[in-house]
Design a protein that fits this description.
Bound molecules: ligand 9MR
Shape: globular
Strand order of the largest sheet: 1-2-3-4-5-6-8-9
CATH topology: TIM Barrel
Number of domains: 1
Number of strands: 10
Radius of gyration: 22 Å
CATH class: Alpha Beta
Number of helices: 16
Structural class: alpha/beta
Largest sheet: 8 strands, parallel, barrel
Helix content: 40-55%
């Protein structure tokens, strides 16, 4: 090899090692990446790997492993419930900041970045709000002002402490809704019209100039027909494009990533393609609520390995598809699990007919599953030329 070429190759190697922050082997003790946390391994790519945090589990003294893993295994956290409107303002005008403050303090103590979840959503709204609108005591004009005040108050309180805000969540219908043509759905669209989306982003930006402002939704991991009438990803893509074109301060699109082993799901390439298209709009992306559930048949519940093993493998493969796609797209900034243990997961509470579960990467006794190992392997055995450090996103004015 010519000297110049050799020097150039060496420089690239050094830069790569530096960029990936590969720790050198210390004397007598070879570096073993498999002992590192998911969060630390992801940071070599500039990626933040996180979990939703259930505050009840975090504060359960009889279950210390939950807190320990939440604190050590992840570099970003999302409040599973305590930043939702019904928790923050159960009584009109009386904010109950306690649990959310505690959550943010937990993240700070553990040097974790926070995804704020969620400012505008049709679920988990306080009763006084929905009933006030239903009985006509809250007018449309007042409702808009209430929403503005809520966003302003919450974003201001945590200003400078939130990395990414889910400003609007799940605003778009699904093909199984009525009418089946995709549309803006739910409480806010119904009462304020779709203009509330742009308003919400503008109000959030006014209250925090630095947080990254996200639209967040499920079933947008990959494009389908390309027709916004039935392809939710296309609908959201066009929505984000229009918001951008109108100068609305949206910085990213969060793809929740709630998958199930009973479905066809996606190839890594399909998911990369979707992330690239969003990046093409100048947007960051993130996987925000990843889990992969399975049907718990009688045989599964009875411990039959013939039925359990294929589920564990399919779940691992699906987690891996989303993570590899995220690694491959440099604007994909974070990868958050919606809970990390089957001991505390929304899935069994939500899907009971037929029962579903096994959706996270640790079992009920905090034993890491195959999915956990495969996520680690994906983080360890990836790098240049196809997996490169993240491109930081600048918040839009
Ligand atoms: O995991 C959350 C669960 O504890 C709540 O009961 C539920 C109520 O709607 O919300 C769950 O979290 C949802 C998230 O906030 C938005 N995307 C879908 C998540 C799973 O339902």
């Amino acid at each position: 090899m010519k000297l110049r070429r050799w020097i150039a190759t060496g420089a690239v190697a050094v830069a790569t090692v530096a960029a990936l922050n590969v720790a050198p082997a210390t004397a007598g003790r070879p570096y073993d990446p498999t002992t590192q946390s998911l969060g630390d391994l992801a940071l070599r790519h500039g990626l933040y790997l996180g979990t939703a945090v259930d505050m009840d589990a975090l504060n359960d003294a009889s279950d210390p492993r939950y807190r320990q893993l939440a604190a050590t295994e992840f570099s970003t956290v999302t409040a599973e419930n305590v930043m939702k409107w019904e928790s923050l303002e159960p009584t009109r005008g009386r904010y109950n900041w306690g649990p959310a403050d505690e959550f943010v303090a937990f993240a700070r103590k553990n040097h974790q970045r926070v995804r704020g979840h969620v400012l505008v959503w049709q679920n988990q709204l306080p009763g006084w709000l929905t009933s006030g609108v239903a009985d006509g005591s809250i007018s449309k004009a007042e409702l808009r002002q209430i929403l503005r005040d809520h966003i302003t108050r919450v974003v201001t309180r945590y200003q400078g402490r939130i990395w990414q805000w889910d400003v609007v969540n799940e605003a778009v219908s699904d093909p199984w809704d009525t009418p089946s043509t995709l549309h803006y759905k739910g409480f806010w669209a119904q009462h304020l019209g779709p203009g509330y989306l742009a308003d919400a982003f503008r109000w959030a930006r006014a209250a925090d100039p630095k947080a990254l402002l996200f639209y967040n939704d499920y079933n947008i991991e990959a494009f389908g027909s390309g027709n916004p009438a039935d392809d939710k990803t296309q609908f959201v893509y066009e929505m984000a494009r229009d918001l951008r074109a109108r100068g609305v301060p949206i910085d990213g699109v969060g793809s929740q990533g709630h998958l199930g082993t009973q479905y066809g799901n996606y190839s890594t390439f399909q998911v990369v393609d979707a992330l690239k298209k969003f990046a093409g709009l100048g947007l960051a992306t993130a996987f925000t609520e990843v889990d992969v559930r399975s049907q718990l048949t009688e045989a599964v519940r009875a411990g039959d390995s013939n039925e359990i093993n294929p589920r564990l493998q399919a779940a691992a493969a699906n987690f891996s598809v989303l993570l590899r796609a995220c690694l491959a797209e440099r604007h994909c900034l974070s990868f958050t699990l919606w809970g990390f243990t089957d001991r505390h997961s929304w899935v069994p509470d939500w899907f009971d007919n037929p029962p579903e579960g096994m959706a996270t990467v640790y079992d009920e006794n905090y034993r890491p599953k195959l999915a956990y190992q495969e996520l680690k392997a994906d983080l360890i055995y990836s790098g240049p030329p196809f997996v490169l450090p993240r491109v930081p996103q600048q918040p839009r004015r």
